[in-house]
Amino acid sequence: FCKLSKMMRGFRRLAQLGARVTEQRVGWVATSRPALARMYSTPSPLEEHLAKGAKVEARLEDMRERALAGGGEARREAQHKKGRLTARERINLLVDPGSFREYDMFVEHRCTYFGMEKSTFPGDGVVVGSGRINGRLVFLFSQDFTVLGGSLGEMYAKKICKIMDKAMDVGAPVIGINDSGGARIQEGVDSLAGYADIFQRNVMASGVIPQISLIMGPCAGGAVYSPALTDFTFMVDHTSYLYVTGPDVVKQVTNETVTHDELGGAQVHTTKSGVAHNSFDNDLDALLGVRDLVNYLPLSNSEPAPIVSTTDDPNRIERALDHIVPRDPFKAYDMKHVIEKLVDFGEFYEIQPTYAKNIVVGFGRMDGQSVGFVGNNPVSASGTLDINASVKAARFVRFCDAFNIPVVTLVDVPGFLPGTAQEYGGIIRHGAKLLYAFAEATVPKITIITRKAFGGAYDVMSSKHLRGDINYAWPQAEVAVMGAKGAAAILHRKAEGEELHAKEQEYMEEFSNPFPAARRGFIDDIITPSTTRMRIIEDLNMLSTKQQSNPLKKHGNIPL
Description:
The protein is built from 20 helices and 17 strands. The strands form 3 sheets. Strands 10, 11, 12, 13, 14, 15, 16 and 17 form an 8-stranded mixed sheet that branches. α13 links the parallel β12 (369-376) and β13. Helix content is 43%, strand content 16%. It is α/β, with parallel strands linked by helices.
């Protein structure tokens, strides 16, 4: 009984203890539930990191979409209605598919004046980056008129400067597509500083990497000087304009009434001013034209002229050249036809075809190698050298020399164009530019006199005296101070009629032929015209290892 009684007391104590424990556990759970809820609802560091990443990705995608949209659908449609492509459409057509790599897509301006903080666009109105044209690296920028009118500000300019610096670092051409309303007035002097920064880089890059400008919309005010500093400038008919001051300012200052096209359109700059090197009917043709040009150019001045494989026979005899020059010395022929017979497959890329037509300049290939051609053209002003022709050819020769492109010169020149307009306009100074360019050039220089080479113009047109490497003459060539008729009239002032005619014939026999120059070594050979292509290609191969330099100096003082 006693043992049973003790057991019962033990059970009662155990029950009491269990009740107390249960009560304590229930109370603990009740008081700890909020803490547990908070513990299990707080995200872990990993969850926080993933959530943050998702937000960044969403924001990135939104900014990318905004950048790609430019100024919006309405402004893009307005651009198309004007006959213009958008900035990104132009890039996509210019470079090889899938090769464009954009930089600084998310750059925005920092201006807070005039409510500009409310008008920000990723990219700030210009698309910059690198791409490839036929597999060869180029850097480019394309101004976006749909974003703030393509106006240039501080960050906009920094984007352009960055890719220009990179192009210089790696040695690749820069192509600028201009379509801008000018400086961003709201940013004040920062815009002007941006232009000057670009100009400085244009100058530093000159002669180091090819620079090409496409004017595909308005380009006015200070903005015009960047294209002017580049090597080639191309425009689009009726949709691009290039001028320092617009029609409204001209009207206020001079009381002249002109349209955008009349003041600074493509036709003005390709036929009258010579500022642009060619014009095209539309954006597409312009972009394809630039692609063609790039194929002829080295990527930088540290590379030789590009060479491509060709199936055109280097020993091809072109019989048509034996008859292309008329027997009548006063009858014209087109020097472009001569060039087309010489180059591979007749493909000649002419530069400034509608400006100073009395001289022809451009690029062709001979046995696959890029060559620069300069030729007097008798179909225009008898092929005389005037102010515009001299400047046009001089600039082209200097470009070829800067970028290691051999120069072939075709000569049929009766002299410099006489007249007060030329003398008052400075033909002496401008003609000296062409002389300077040929004399300074150290690239291979091959010259062919096809018919006339008279007076000082003979000297200027890459003569042996200006370090011409190979100088040829065709059999009908005349190398003399002047033509027989003029020379006879001066030498025999009193002669008339049959006597004067006899003196002309005497002068022709003695001087109006290539033999006096050949006897003195001023002409290396008198060649059959049909063999000209073969001879030039042989000489280019021989001259491929030419090494020549000018005296050490800071720079020359060309008569600008």
